[in-house]
């Protein structure tokens, strides 16, 4: 059973309180918290009215007492969370796995995390909190498929899980969702393309903007319009859309003439453009909205 956060206004106030419902909409935890997050690895962080954070389990019980600061999530068995002495990592029992002392502590991914003591430079650590590699970086993104994008000297490159540079610092930018289908979106001289794990441009940097591959296709922007490439760099859907999202369950949201619909992998309308905003399909449900009541974000992730 999964629980999901809800909120409601306190009577005669603009303040919101947070509780949790199950998938049927039944309230399992009455709204009583000043803040709360989603469940990850069976726990959700909640904030009481003293500003202290603890963690609920899926039974709605406060499994980890309210001793911490901030709202965070468990990943790979640990959670980065604040205390009076800084940010560290706790385990599912609420005990410190890596003691607090950082200003920033990013979530673990593939057994590695990036931390910062000053908010300006970052270093990679392992599960025991020990440094990996000797370099510090100006900006970092999570390790995925054994490689992490990092910035040094104003340029982006990649390091491996031991902190060793594997792709030199030559790029203007790297997208966060890297090496899907073995390719990562990289920007050089103001244009985007896709590199392989050696740093070679498998798809040359011709594009104004790109999005990661999904279901074998990647949205790309050329001459102000969006189309789709396959993993070989071939044009699968010609650029003609004003906006274009990634494919999810065989459909991608597309906007033309101010309206969103959904296209199939050959670029034909599966659902005609009638909507002001659209989100992607998830678990066979389609989320869209028509008219003036707009969601906070659209399928393109902007």
Description:
The protein has a domain at 1-75. It has no helices and 33 strands. The protein has a four-stranded antiparallel β-sheet with strand order 4-5-6-7, with no helix packed on it. Strands 8-9-10-11 form a four-stranded antiparallel β-sheet, with no helix packed on it. The chain has a four-stranded antiparallel β-sheet with strand order 12-13-14-15, with no helix packed on it. It is mainly β and 302 residues long.
What keyword list fits this structure?
single chain, 302 residues, mainly beta, four-stranded antiparallel β-sheet, 0% helix
Topology record:
Elements: E1 4-9, E2 16-21, E3 27-33, E4 35-36, E5 43-47, E6 53-57, E7 62-68, E8 74-75, E9 78-83, E10 86-90, E11 96-102, E12 104-105, E13 113-116, E14 122-125, E15 131-137, E16 139-140, E17 147-152, E18 155-160, E19 165-171, E20 173-174, E21 184-188, E22 191-195, E23 201-207, E24 209-210, E25 217-222, E26 225-230, E27 235-241, E28 243-244, E29 252-256, E30 259-263, E31 269-275, E32 277-278, E33 288-289
Antiparallel strand pairs: 1-2, 2-3, 4-5, 5-6, 6-7, 8-9, 9-10, 10-11, 12-13, 13-14, 14-15, 16-17, 17-18, 18-19, 20-21, 21-22, 22-23, 24-25, 25-26, 26-27, 28-29, 29-30, 30-31, 32-33
